[in-house]
Design brief:
The structure holds two protein chains of two kinds.
Chain A (H helix, E strand, L loop, with lengths): L1 E6 L6 H10 L3 E6 L11 E4 L19 H11 L3 E5 L1 H9 L5 E3 L7 E9 L15 E8 L3 E3 L2 H9 L3 E5 L10 E5 L5 E4 L17 H13 L1
Parallel strand pairs in A: 1-2, 1-3, 3-4, 4-11
Antiparallel strand pairs in A: 5-8, 6-7, 6-9, 9-10, 10-11
Chain B lengths: L1 E8 L6 H12 L12 E6 L6 H12 L5 E7 L1
Antiparallel strand pairs in B: 1-2, 1-3
Classes of the chains: A alpha/beta, B alpha+beta.
Chain lengths: 222, 76
């Protein structure tokens, strides 16, 4: 599996994400935001967490309009895989690759702690390494993670089994406790929690490892 | 020429910052503040001949996220 990790000014989880991909067996290329094309043969694009462009205007808004994001949208449009974590999830909603938006946390505070996540579906190449209903421990670290979408969109996500993860104890006010969602073709995943920060025994937990392993398993045999 | 863009969270979208300001006003003794909504104002210095439609395009594509925000444009 060949993975590209996009690096924006202000990204700070790019290297963690690259290590998590590599540990799972992927070849990883870092791609700078000003590049207009992805390297050839990329199976999955990772949009990392951080504070792209200082979170100016809205989190992820300026990154979503950067040159590389046009190529990421083209890649997704061709059925390519994209995972956006934290700020990466915000970028994916700003590009329109995923529905909804991430608002300021309801309690107004930046929250950095490990939370319980319920795996809502195992029917995706990201979540196939878990069983639906599993509860895993994954860290969150965000100020704007309060998932918002109109009632029709939430109903559609539920009806199409596109909610990947929910919080067991909602920390930020997210609608329907949503922590992560899938695109209609189930190949684009956006989530606020950081599986790449739970992918090594030194992290204090390894519950994120199964996500990266399932992905490389699916994309290496494809 | 100049344009001034007002961006506000849509009605129905919780504005926790506005709520915090409302609580603070109440705690300071300003009674009777029933609600506070906080938005942003963006001033643009534009080339002559720019139109309101140009600015509305900017709002749709970047300045506002129309999933959660509404905007209005004043040209001057």
């Amino acid at each position: 599996m060949r993975a590209a990790v996009i690096v924006f000014p202000g990204s700070n989880c790019d290297r963690d994400l690259a290590v998590a991909f590599e540990r799972a067996g992927a070849d990883v290329t870092m791609v700078w935001h000003k590049d207009s094309a992805l390297p050839d043969g990329i199976d999955i694009v990772g949009i990392p967490g951080g504070f792209s462009y200082g979170d100016y205007l809205r989190c992820g808004a300026i990154a979503a309009n950067s040159p590389i994001c046009k190529s990421v949208a083209t890649h997704a449009g061709r059925g390519g895989y994209v995972i956006g974590i934290c700020n990466g999830f915000q970028v994916l909603t700003e590009t329109g690759l995923l529905p909804g938006a991430l608002l300021r946390n309801a309690g107004l505070k930046y929250i950095c702690k490990t939370v319980g996540l319920k795996v809502e579906t195992s029917a995706s190449d990201y979540t196939a390494g878990y069983n639906a209903g599993d509860v895993i421990d994954i860290p969150i670290a965000h100020h704007d993670g309060n998932y918002f979408a109109d009632a029709d969109t939430i109903a559609r996500l539920q009806g199409e089994d596109r909610i990947a993860f929910t919080y067991t104890d909602n920390p930020n006010g997210a609608q329907a406790d949503i922590a992560g969602i899938l695109s209609q073709n189930r190949r684009v995943l956006g989530l606020m929690p950081h599986p790449e920060r739970a992918a090594d025994t030194g992290h204090g937990g390894t519950d994120g490892t199964a996500l990266f392993r399932a992905l490389t398993g699916a994309l290496s045999t494809a | 020429m100049k344009a001034r863009v007002h961006v506000m969270l849509k009605n129905g979208v919780l504005d926790p910052q506005g709520e915090a300001v409302r609580h603070a006003l109440g705690a300071m003794g300003f009674d009777g503040v029933k609600g506070v909504r906080q938005g942003k104002v963006i001033e643009l210095d534009l080339a002559e001949g720019s139109t309101q439609a140009d600015v509305e395009q900017m709002c749709e594509k970047l300045l506002a996220n129309t999933v959660i925000e509404s905007y209005s444009v004043e040209m001057s």
